[in-house]
């Protein structure tokens, strides 16, 4: 799914109106209807509702929602925030329609701002995607008061005051509990720094023109279940393990064999034909006992890896989980980078070695996959001042190094060598736990070995990892969830994606 900027959203809106065709006011009615349905599902109609409406189309949505909630027997109070003399046409129509049902109140200055009573639910329809400058004056005071209140706040389309795709977090912005946005997510929703403004966000479909969306150019995408299911290949009836590739995993050191084990299990559970693990001597019985399906290549060193094993007949290579940064291991990484013709995935200490030895980073083969968490990315690429800045650095980094970076987080960002960024839609805070990243490395390695292209392996791998985590949460909850659970639920995650495929 594409992520569009405010200008593109405006054009999409206009195109849909011209080509569906649908009157602008009816498109607003459809959007507001979707919001109202969401609201009615969530709150009983004895909930007192206070709606703050701006004077543009976001405000128009607010007025239409007010009418719909009145018709659904909610007790609704509406206040129009008169930050401008200019009102949009669809705002005016909805104002007239609502006037027939209730008395609309107005806020012209700070004195008009009401006390927000306890138990009230606020709908924020002050500004939407038309915001063009930071909120100021009495509207800023209103935003402060809403944020200081105990009320539950639901924003229509976007938290008022938040730019769709650039940084303004030091200005006045509504801190919503929920944001219900129209059809496409905004870039700002996907960045950690804006979580306190968006709260939990959801999308509602409003029938915007798919062909127009198709031809919009953007670097930013949001991975939906349909997107992921399109990437998933079918296994053939007349196939054998040779068809599903041979993965090589270089992992583990004394005290960190668990990381190698988790990664190896995930590689196998993601459908690879064969897996060889290259391990230090101390890992031999551990791996053979805990994971009989994996073959072992054993290093001469007791505690860490010092040799590159044979790369013959290997389809993809993963390196990093549970490694260390001993000088001999650095040589292994160097040799591997020079010799490997297969696709590579780098994680954990392999990334730290690259960060410490930038000349190695320059030699990493094109299309290799790097899977840093934000701190590891900082070590690799440098510091940034905010999340937008980091996104820009991420794009510059992948373009310059010609690699794929999987920047892990709540919405893991997969940056491709052409600068496109895919944000993941699965996963939960329970996955912020030891070994979770090792599992992801194993999943991606497995897909690479099965001949998925590196970009598909990264996108599908990240999606599956998050989906397995979401399924695990259903039984384990967030606190008790451990990385092994993610591996256990991979089978169910595949089943969910297969169902999506079959439904299409
Ligand atoms: N495309 C869709 O998906 C649909 C969207 N809908 C809703 O429409 C809004 C966008 O509405 P729009 O009228 O474009 O803009 P806003 O309501 O967000 O803002 C209104 C005007 O306010 C002015 N403005 C901007 N920033 C400030 C500020 N800081 N202080 C004061 N005034 C400000 C600006 O006008 P200017 O001429 O002054 O620049 C805005 O135009 C979208 O979010 C949805 O909720 C439709 O209902 C359905 C389809
Ligand atoms: K809003």
TrEMBL record:
<comment type="similarity">
    <text>Belongs to the NnrE/AIBP family.</text>
</comment>
<comment type="similarity">
    <text>Belongs to the NnrD/CARKD family.</text>
</comment>
<feature type="binding site">
    <location>
        <position position="437"/>
    </location>
    <ligand>
        <name>AMP</name>
    </ligand>
</feature>
<dbReference type="Pfam" id="PF03853">
    <property type="entry name" value="YjeF_N"/>
</dbReference>
<feature type="binding site">
    <location>
        <position position="259"/>
    </location>
    <ligand>
        <name>(6S)-NADPHX</name>
    </ligand>
</feature>
<feature type="binding site">
    <location>
        <position position="58"/>
    </location>
    <ligand>
        <name>K(+)</name>
    </ligand>
</feature>
<feature type="binding site">
    <location>
        <position position="373"/>
    </location>
    <ligand>
        <name>(6S)-NADPHX</name>
    </ligand>
</feature>
<feature type="binding site">
    <location>
        <position position="438"/>
    </location>
    <ligand>
        <name>(6S)-NADPHX</name>
    </ligand>
</feature>
<keyword id="KW-0456">Lyase</keyword>
<keyword id="KW-0479">Metal-binding</keyword>
<keyword id="KW-0067">ATP-binding</keyword>
<keyword id="KW-0521">NADP</keyword>
<dbReference type="GO" id="GO:0005524">
    <property type="term" value="F:ATP binding"/>
</dbReference>
<comment type="subunit">
    <text>Homotetramer.</text>
</comment>
<feature type="binding site">
    <location>
        <position position="322"/>
    </location>
    <ligand>
        <name>(6S)-NADPHX</name>
    </ligand>
</feature>
<feature type="binding site">
    <location>
        <position position="160"/>
    </location>
    <ligand>
        <name>K(+)</name>
    </ligand>
</feature>
<keyword id="KW-0511">Multifunctional enzyme</keyword>
<dbReference type="InterPro" id="IPR036652">
    <property type="entry name" value="YjeF_N_dom_sf"/>
</dbReference>
<keyword id="KW-0547">Nucleotide-binding</keyword>
<keyword id="KW-0413">Isomerase</keyword>
<dbReference type="GO" id="GO:0052856">
    <property type="term" value="F:NAD(P)HX epimerase activity"/>
</dbReference>
<feature type="binding site">
    <location>
        <position position="124"/>
    </location>
    <ligand>
        <name>K(+)</name>
    </ligand>
</feature>
<feature type="binding site">
    <location>
        <begin position="128"/>
        <end position="134"/>
    </location>
    <ligand>
        <name>(6S)-NADPHX</name>
    </ligand>
</feature>
<keyword id="KW-0630">Potassium</keyword>
<dbReference type="GO" id="GO:0052855">
    <property type="term" value="F:ADP-dependent NAD(P)H-hydrate dehydratase activity"/>
</dbReference>
<feature type="binding site">
    <location>
        <begin position="408"/>
        <end position="412"/>
    </location>
    <ligand>
        <name>AMP</name>
    </ligand>
</feature>
<feature type="binding site">
    <location>
        <position position="157"/>
    </location>
    <ligand>
        <name>(6S)-NADPHX</name>
    </ligand>
</feature>
<feature type="domain" description="YjeF N-terminal">
    <location>
        <begin position="9"/>
        <end position="214"/>
    </location>
</feature>
<dbReference type="GO" id="GO:0110051">
    <property type="term" value="P:metabolite repair"/>
</dbReference>
<dbReference type="InterPro" id="IPR000631">
    <property type="entry name" value="CARKD"/>
</dbReference>
<comment type="function">
    <text>Bifunctional enzyme that catalyzes the epimerization of the S- and R-forms of NAD(P)HX and the dehydration of the S-form of NAD(P)HX at the expense of ADP, which is converted to AMP. This allows the repair of both epimers of NAD(P)HX, a damaged form of NAD(P)H that is a result of enzymatic or heat-dependent hydration.</text>
</comment>
<dbReference type="InterPro" id="IPR017953">
    <property type="entry name" value="Carbohydrate_kinase_pred_CS"/>
</dbReference>
<dbReference type="InterPro" id="IPR029056">
    <property type="entry name" value="Ribokinase-like"/>
</dbReference>
<protein>
    <recommendedName>
        <fullName>Bifunctional NAD(P)H-hydrate repair enzyme</fullName>
        <ecNumber>4.2.1.136</ecNumber>
        <ecNumber>5.1.99.6</ecNumber>
    </recommendedName>
</protein>
<comment type="function">
    <text>Catalyzes the dehydration of the S-form of NAD(P)HX at the expense of ADP, which is converted to AMP. Together with NAD(P)HX epimerase, which catalyzes the epimerization of the S- and R-forms, the enzyme allows the repair of both epimers of NAD(P)HX, a damaged form of NAD(P)H that is a result of enzymatic or heat-dependent hydration.</text>
</comment>
<dbReference type="InterPro" id="IPR004443">
    <property type="entry name" value="YjeF_N_dom"/>
</dbReference>
<keyword id="KW-0520">NAD</keyword>
<dbReference type="InterPro" id="IPR030677">
    <property type="entry name" value="Nnr"/>
</dbReference>
<dbReference type="GO" id="GO:0046496">
    <property type="term" value="P:nicotinamide nucleotide metabolic process"/>
</dbReference>
<dbReference type="GO" id="GO:0046872">
    <property type="term" value="F:metal ion binding"/>
</dbReference>
<feature type="domain" description="YjeF C-terminal">
    <location>
        <begin position="224"/>
        <end position="497"/>
    </location>
</feature>
<dbReference type="Pfam" id="PF01256">
    <property type="entry name" value="Carb_kinase"/>
</dbReference>
């Amino acid at each position: 799914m594409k992520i569009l900027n405010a200008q593109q959203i405006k054009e999409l809106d206009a195109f849909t109106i011209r080509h569906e065709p649908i009157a602008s006011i009816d498109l607003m009615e459809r959007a507001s209807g979707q919001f109202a349905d969401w609201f009615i599902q969530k709150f009983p109609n004895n909930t007192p509702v206070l709606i703050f409406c701006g004077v543009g189309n976001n405000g128009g949505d607010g007025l239409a929602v007010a009418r719909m909630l009145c018709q659904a027997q909610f007790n609704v109070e509406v206040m129009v925030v008169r930050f401008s003399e200019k009102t949009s046409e669809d705002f005016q129509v909805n104002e007239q329609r609502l006037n027939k049902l209730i008395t609309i109140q107005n806020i012209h200055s700070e004195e008009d701002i009401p006390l927000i009573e306890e138990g009230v639910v606020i709908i924020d329809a002050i500004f939407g995607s038309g915001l063009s400058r930071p909120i100021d004056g009495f509207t800023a005071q209103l935003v402060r008061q809403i944020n200081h209140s105990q009320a539950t706040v639901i924003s229509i389309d976007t938290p008022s005051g938040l730019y769709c795709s650039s940084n303004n977090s030091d200005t006045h912005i509504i801190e919503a509990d929920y944001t219900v946005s129209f059809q496409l997510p905004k870039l700002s929703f996907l960045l950690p720094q804006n979580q306190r403004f968006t709260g939990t966000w959801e999308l509602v479909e409003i029938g915007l023109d798919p062909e127009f969306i198709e031809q919009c150019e953007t670097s930013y995408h949001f991975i939906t279940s349909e997107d992921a299911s399109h990437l998933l290949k079918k296994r053939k009836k007349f196939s054998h393990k040779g068809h599903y590739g041979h993965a090589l995993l270089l992992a583990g050191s004394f005290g960190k064999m668990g990381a190698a084990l988790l990664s190896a299990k995930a590689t196998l559970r993601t459908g690879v034909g064969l897996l060889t693990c290259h391990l230090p001597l101390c890992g031999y019985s551990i791996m053979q006992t805990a994971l009989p399906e994996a073959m072992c290549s054993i290093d001469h060193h007791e505690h860490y890896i010092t040799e590159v094993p044979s790369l013959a007949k290997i389809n993809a290579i993963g390196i990093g989980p549970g490694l260390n940064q001993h000088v001999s291991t650095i040589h292994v990484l160097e040799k591997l980078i020079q010799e490997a013709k297969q696709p590579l995935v780098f994680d954990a200490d392999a990334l730290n070695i690259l960060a410490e030895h930038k000349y190695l980073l320059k030699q990493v083969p094109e299309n290799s996959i790097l899977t840093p968490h934000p701190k590891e990315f900082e070590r690799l690429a440098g510091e940034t001042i905010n999340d937008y800045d980091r996104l820009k650095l991420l794009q510059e980094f992948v373009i310059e190094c010609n690699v794929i970076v999987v920047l892990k987080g709540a919405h893991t960002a997969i940056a491709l060598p052409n600068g496109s960024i895919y944000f993941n839609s699965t996963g939960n805070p329970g996955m912020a736990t030891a070994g979770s990243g090792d599992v992801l490395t194993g999943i991606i390695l497995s897909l690479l070995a099965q001949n998925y292209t590196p970009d598909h392996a990264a996108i599908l791998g990240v999606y599956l990892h998050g989906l397995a985590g979401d399924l695990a949460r259903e039984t384990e909850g967030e606190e008790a969830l451990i990385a092994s659970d993610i591996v256990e639920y991979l089978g169910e995650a595949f089943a969910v994606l297969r169902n999506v495929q079959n439904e299409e």
